[in-house]
């Protein structure tokens, strides 16, 4: 399970485990004469020369198999398993070291909150204001020490700090007890965190180029395309309709010479915000909608790698047309208070969504420390999620909310983050408590796929690239 521990404060989540449990198994239908399926053992590099594999559901009567095992019996299919590369989650040390008294857990009883909960809390508050005061004195070449946005951020942090600190501590303690976290990891490792190679993603550029494609005849328009056994697809085919993998096996698609893994029971639309009509033509209403907008900020403006949307553009996303009655809407928000206020005061009212809660995703190392000092003025080791429900037909909303737990006002999702930029932790397991089984789920501005979900974005296949995975060898 991707949820390692569930406490009153929230969840300790294993992001890597969730990815690998998605079922990245490829069914090889190529058979030798005599009806015996060929055992295929290839490396990731070899796979670029392999044609696509058949992806039909595996029989429930098939004997169990282990990772990477090939089944070589008459009438059976060989299966190869892909695993997401572990080094992307090897965050063993904080990005910026905090002072010992500021670290979450050093494995030393004398500085651990377990033994001095009240004293330590007051010391930390005192240290926080001392650090702020020293930074004010050291600020250079600024007429004003803090602008209004920074003051708002400090005020917000002071309100949520205790909840984040204490909740994370309890979840980390459970993770250390169970062995999921290892407080000796950072001490034993002499190396800095290794930044794995990042692939250049041209999907956004491809979506931009797609605007130059000749418009398809509406009468000939295909709203859905089910993945079959083809090895590659024309860009225009993938960009003009929702792609479904309805089988129980993963599939490999080739787009512009690059291979991408599509998990079973997943759907996606690769397009930008100007080409959402195929998603509307899909005729589905969603009970859960997760949104991770490309928020505008100074670093994004300076960078040529990432695009961003204005507040006006985000408002134009047709959430009301996609949402089922009582739909749960979850929006990822940066730590800029301007964006948080926009979601709660403008965006959700525009979509007839009532704000219910603010949760936080807290990023820790394998040793249980914050990846950044909790009181850092530059970046925080947490991000905000705003949860709300679509308001509409009261009777329908009551019917859908039967036997569903109410949304808690504050919860933590604590996990070791992926070192790949914007690879968010999975929400499927944590949201399952607050929805009925077998609901329709949609992620907007997605960069990866999930079984049972529809995903949309101009980089929706980004983290599905086959080079982010390792193909386990068959024996």
Automatic annotation (TrEMBL):
One Gene Ontology term, aspect cellular component: nucleus
One GO molecular function term of this record is:
RNA methyltransferase activity
Segments crossing the lipid bilayer: 113-137
A single GO BP term for this record reads: methylation
Which Pfam families does the UniProt record give?
Answer: MT-A70 (PF05063)
Keyword list (alphabetical) reads: Membrane, Transmembrane, Transmembrane helix
Q: Which PANTHER family match?
A: N(6)-ADENINE-SPECIFIC METHYLTRANSFERASE METTL4 (PTHR12829:SF4), N6-ADENOSINE-METHYLTRANSFERASE (PTHR12829)
Q: Which family does it belong to?
A: Belongs to the MT-A70-like family.
Q: State the protein's name.
A: METL4 protein
Organism equals Thryothorus ludovicianus
Gene encoding it? Mettl4
């Amino acid at each position: 399970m991707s949820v390692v521990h569930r406490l009153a404060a929230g969840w300790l989540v294993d992001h890597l485990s969730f990815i690998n449990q998605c079922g990245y198994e490829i069914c090889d239908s190529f058979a030798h004469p005599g009806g015996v399926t060929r055992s295929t053992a290839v490396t990731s590099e070899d796979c670029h020369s392999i044609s696509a594999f058949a992806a039909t559901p595996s029989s429930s009567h098939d004997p169990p198999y282990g990772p990477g095992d090939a089944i070589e019996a008459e009438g059976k299919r060989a299966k190869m398993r892909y695993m997401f590369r572990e080094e992307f989650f090897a965050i063993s040390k904080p990005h910026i070291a905090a002072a010992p008294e500021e670290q979450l857990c050093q494995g030393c009883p004398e500085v651990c909150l377990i033994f001095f909960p009240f004293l330590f809390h007051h010391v930390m508050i005192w240290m926080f204001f001392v650090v702020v005061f020293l930074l004010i004195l050291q600020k250079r070449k600024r007429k004003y020490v803090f602008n209004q946005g920074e003051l708002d951020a400090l005020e917000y942090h002071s309100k949520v700090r205790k909840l984040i600190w204490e909740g994370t501590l309890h979840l980390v303690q459970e993770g250390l007890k169970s062995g999921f976290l290892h407080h000796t990891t950072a001490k034993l490792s002499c190396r800095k965190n290794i930044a794995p190679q990042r692939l250049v993603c041209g999907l956004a550029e491809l979506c931009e180029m797609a605007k130059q494609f000749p418009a398809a005849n509406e009468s000939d328009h295909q709203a859905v395309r089910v993945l079959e056994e083809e090895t590659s697809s024309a860009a225009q085919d993938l960009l003009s309709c929702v792609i479904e993998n309805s089988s129980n096996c993963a599939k490999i698609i080739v787009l512009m010479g690059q291979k991408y893994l599509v998990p079973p029971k997943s759907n996606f639309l690769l397009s930008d915000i100007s080409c959402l009509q195929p998603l509307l033509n899909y005729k589905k209403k969603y009970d859960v909608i997760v949104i991770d907008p490309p928020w505008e900020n100074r670093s994004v403006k300076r960078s040529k790698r990432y695009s961003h949307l204005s507040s006006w553009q985000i408002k134009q996303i047709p959430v009301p047309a996609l949402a089922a009655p009582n739909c749960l809407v979850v929006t990822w928000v940066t730590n800029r208070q301007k964006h948080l206020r926009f979601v709660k005061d403008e965006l959700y009212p525009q979509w007839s969504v009532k704000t219910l809660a603010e949760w936080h995703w807290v990023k820790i190392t394998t040793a249980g420390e914050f990846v950044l000092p909790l009181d850092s003025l530059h970046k925080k080791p947490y991000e905000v999620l705003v949860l709300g429900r679509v308001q509409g037909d009261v009777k329908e909303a009551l019917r859908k909310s039967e036997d569903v737990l109410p949304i808690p006002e504050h919860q933590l999702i604590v996990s070791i983050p992926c070192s790949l930029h914007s690879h968010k932790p999975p929400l499927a397991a944590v949201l399952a408590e607050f929805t009925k089984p077998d609901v329709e789920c949609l992620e907007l501005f997605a960069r990866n796929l999930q079984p049972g979900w529809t995903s949309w974005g101009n980089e929706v296949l980004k983290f599905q690239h086959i080079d982010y995975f390792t193909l386990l060898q068959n024996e």
